[in-house]
């Protein structure tokens, strides 16, 4: 029955409205694997442009604590371009909130990642991931619109009423640094917050 319900959820999409009276709204609590719903995530990689990078998200346990493991393998194209990520199929309405906080850490040599929300454009926030678990806050006002890895010149800002949360690693073709190879981002939870 779970597979059928997940098919229905995927087909019709799940919309969650955060309570405006609460100080925080949990998007994902991966420390409780029974509520993680990993089947409601999809991989988004450079395969759409002929690349060979890969990405997945699944449960892992570290020191007795369950969490999500975003695993990737970045394989640069001759131009150096590559990306690998995962995006949730769940839509969140966090209209009265100021941003999202994520408790995470990285493994592997690659340091730069981005949190993104898929809308008309991909609204992205680049960050350097820590080697040890930290809570990082990402204000909605600091997300910038991108299309195919390039910044878009638009006045349209992130719509916090329609959020599809995602995480991505990239090769850095437009940056001063380059990234490749495999690693992971371990995530305990994702929450919308108010200042």
TrEMBL record:
Stretches of the chain forming a coiled coil according to its record: none
BP-aspect Gene Ontology terms: NADH dehydrogenase complex assembly
The NADH:ubiquinone oxidoreductase intermediate-associated protein domain, residue ranges: 28-164
Pfam families: CIA30
InterPro entries, sorted: Galactose-bd-like_sf, NADH-UbQ_OxRdtase-assoc_prot30, NDUFAF1
GO molecular function: unfolded protein binding
Membrane spanning residue stretches: none
Family per similarity comment: Belongs to the CIA30 family.
Protein name per the record: NADH:ubiquinone oxidoreductase intermediate-associated protein 30 domain-containing protein
Organism: Hymenolepis diminuta
């Amino acid at each position: 029955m779970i597979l059928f319900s997940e098919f229905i959820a995927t087909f019709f999409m799940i919309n969650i409205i955060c309570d405006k009276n609460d100080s925080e709204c949990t998007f994902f609590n991966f420390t409780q694997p029974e509520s993680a719903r990993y089947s409601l995530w999809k991989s988004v990689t450079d395969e759409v442009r002929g690349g060979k990078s890969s990405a997945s998200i699944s449960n892992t346990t570290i020191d007795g604590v369950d969490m999500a493991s975003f695993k990737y393998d970045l394989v640069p194209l001759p131009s150096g371009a590559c990306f690998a990520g995962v995006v949730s199929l769940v839509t969140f309405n966090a209209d009265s909130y100021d941003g999202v906080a994520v408790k995470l850490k990285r493994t592997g040599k690659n340091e730069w990642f981005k949190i993104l929300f898929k809308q008309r454009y991909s609204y992205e926030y680049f960050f350097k991931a820590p080697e040890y678990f930290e809570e990082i806050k990402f204000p909605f006002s600091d997300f910038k619109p991108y299309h195919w890895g390039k910044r878009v010149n638009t006045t349209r800002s992130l719509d916090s009423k329609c959020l599809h949360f995602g995480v991505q690693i990239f090769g850095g073709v437009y940056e001063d640094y380059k990234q490749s190879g495999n690693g992971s981002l371990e995530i305990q939870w994702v929450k919308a917050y108010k200042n």
